[in-house]
């Protein structure tokens, strides 16, 4: 296993189109293991492949308190969602930045697991938020895209400041 470098906002890979995973093989299983190690080490509750510089449709999530419930989602898609709520969230590509984002409270999502089985799960609460955030990454979308202009600009200013201070 290996801990990988997490790409921060400003890296073009975060806006690059991802390709679907064609086949679950040893490389994909290794990538999933490395992504989990990177996510736990950060520490974080979710990580998408573009965040470690890989433009593939794949993400890992673990919102459990004891960090023993990893979910690896290959080619995930949101099937449906209900009830929009606003909650604060962060992103490993935006260290130290937290903003309120409106998302579905409950979602139904389908994906392929590492045993090449198609899964369909219902998620709510923290898990629903994480699933939507990570799948957004696979669509080259970032949480700041949901913010009003003035707020997004203030985040960008903060990023610029952190870059200058060598904190990015
Ligand atoms: Ni993120």
What does this structure look like?
This protein is α+β, with helices and mostly antiparallel strands. The chain has 3 helices and 5 strands; from the N terminus they run H-E-E-E-E-E-H-H. The chain has one domain: Alpha-Beta Complex (Peptide Deformylase), CATH 3.90.45.10. Helices cover 27% and strands 28% of the residues. Strands 1-2-3-4-5 form a 5-stranded antiparallel beta sheet. The chain is globular. The mean pLDDT is 97. Bound molecules: nickel (II) ion. Nickel (II) ion binds next to helix 2.
Key features?
168 residues, alpha+beta, Peptide Deformylase, 5 strands, binds nickel (II) ion
Q: What is the CATH domain class?
A: Alpha Beta
Q: Taking all residues together, what is the mean pLDDT?
A: 97
**Shape, please?**
globular
The major sheet is characterized as: 5 strands, antiparallel
Order of helices and strands: HEEEEEHH
Beta-strand proportion: 25-35%
Kindly state the number of beta strands: 5
- How many helices does DSSP assign? 3
Low-confidence stretches: none
Tally of structural domains: 1
The second-level CATH architecture is: Alpha-Beta Complex
What ligand molecules are bound, each kind once?
nickel (II) ion
Task: Give the helix level as a range of percent.
Answer: 25-40%
CATH fold name: Peptide Deformylase
In angstroms, what separates the terminal alpha carbons?
Answer: 25 Å
How are the strands of the largest sheet arranged?
A: 1-2-3-4-5
CATH superfamily: Peptide deformylase
């Amino acid at each position: 296993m290996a801990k990988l470098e997490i790409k921060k906002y400003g890296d073009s890979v975060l806006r690059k189109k991802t390709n679907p995973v064609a086949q679950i093989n040893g490389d994909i299983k290794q990538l999933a293991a490395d992504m989990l190690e990177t996510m736990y080490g950060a520490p974080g509750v979710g990580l998408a492949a573009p965040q470690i510089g890989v433009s593939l449709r794949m993400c890992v999530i673990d919102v459990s308190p004891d960090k023993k419930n990893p979910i690896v989602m290959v080619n995930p898609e949101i099937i449906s969602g209900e009830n929009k709520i606003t909650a604060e969230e962060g992103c490993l590509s935006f260290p130290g930045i937290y903003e309120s984002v409106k998302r579905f409270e409950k979602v139904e999502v389908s994906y392929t697991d590492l045993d090449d089985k198609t899964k369909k799960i219902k998620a709510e609460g923290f898990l629903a938020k994480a699933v939507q955030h990570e799948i957004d990454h696979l669509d080259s979308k970032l949480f700041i895209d949901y913010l009003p202009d003035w707020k997004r600009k203030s985040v960008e200013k903060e990023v610029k400041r952190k870059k200058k201070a060598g904190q990015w």
